[in-house]
Fold this protein.
Amino acid sequence: MFKKILIANRGEIAVRIITSAKEMGIKTVAVYSDFDRYSLFAKMADEAYHIGESPSAKSYLKAEKIIEVAKQSGAEAIHPGYGFLSERGFFAKMCEENGLKFIGPGYKAIDLLGSKTEAKILALKNNVPVVPGTEKPLHDFSLIKNIAKDIGYPILIKASAGGGGKGMRIVKEEADIESSLRMAQNEAKSSFGDDSVFIEKYIESPRHIEFQILADEYGNVVHLGERECSMQRRHQKIIEETPSVIMDEKMRNDMGECAKRIVKAAGYSNAGTVEFIVDTNNKYYFLEVNTRLQVEHPITEMRTGFDLVREQLKIASGEKLSFKQEDVVFKGHTIECRICAEDSENNFMPSTGKITYMKNVLSNGMREDTGIEQGNEISVYYDPMISKLISNGATREIAIEKMKRALRDYKLVGIKSNIAFLLNLLESEEYVSGNYHTQFIEKEFLGRLSSQKSSTDEETNAAVALAAVLFKEQKSLKIIKKAGNNSHSNNFWSNKRTESYR
Ligand code: MV4
């Protein structure tokens, strides 16, 4: 096993990785930007190095700088987390060339699966269902028009180099295809520097279901079940859950085996996620493979008992998977809510500023993954996610009840958040019944919300309640002071550092 690793990321995922590494006796090296000098993850790591200015392009995306720090610190491996450099084949390759282990798949698998068309061809070859359409990148207009006619409208134009919805265009009828094609190609060119596109039958209101897989470097692959991620807005997932309400054992086995076949064929190792869309007849189609640990990985951890970061570290250090598919046991129901700094009542505008008060009363099996502490600032530089709340119950109903309790108890002052929005979603008839899809929020829920009364009163009530909480806490603080219990140093995290923080 590695003795020391570098975490090329920030925030909650850096905290998450450092935590597992510490449990395994592995030393951790953080890298941080100007903005993150006092962030929790930088304080938690055994060593922390400043790598540049706050904009990601000047810090967390500076591959050379990060490699240099890794070598200087004596780290043997780099964990990229999610976002930033995590799915950049060139970075995995640079690590390898510099004698550093990239904690993720090899760069060849990253590049192969990074191309949506290559991935689709691989799926087809391995008997994994894909959406009817083309597999090869297309340029020629008349050819595209003919194929579209064969598939039948509506069709969807997608960028070959795309992902996450960029460069996608729905075409409802033949009259629109020429202009839509041009727009899709332009967007693909400017976003990815590659204007090739492919077309598919447009699946209306699909669910998004993904499978967690783990693959070691000897060709052993297991899946850890699905995550239902259909509760999303503008390709940002908001609530995830496992199991999916539509899944039975046969469907889980079938989809899980498809996921395993595709990653095996790609020569994949480490943790990965195979994404599918599922139509209203519960027919599933492979979409793409995400070659990283995902934001929503905790729900899989809570339902299976595996620590995915631990497994990633074991795989990257050359260990064989220590369990087989039949050893994976699913237990209970798990839900994750992403708490974000945004104004849900004002078109989800990002809300920046200092968090003057932050508190969650967890307990009863709830988990919170966060990289934020009271007093921290939410900036424009990075993702607005403040925290991930994860509930776990014997049944879906209990998991929902626990989540609602935790959201109501969550205290956040200084910035706006989507907590009330999350509660509204959890109470919607569609969420409660499980009968929702990827277009639910945009097509059905938002219109319904805006016709309801504003929650100004609720906010006032919350502010009054909070004032009372603060008053009570101040009183108890005074009692502690009187008792003289003030001897613990603030610096309870850790010890050897390359730079002091105060
Ligand atoms: C689709 C689709 C419907 N039909 N493909 C969106 C992101 C990209 N990864 C693929 N996406 C979609 N592909 C066909 N043929 C609908 C989506 C889609 C979607 C997929 C998963 C999660 C959220 C989504 C939101 C909008 C559209």
Notes: The radius of gyration is 23 Å. Residues 14 and 56 are 15 Å apart (CA to CA). The first strand starts at residue 4 and ends at 7.
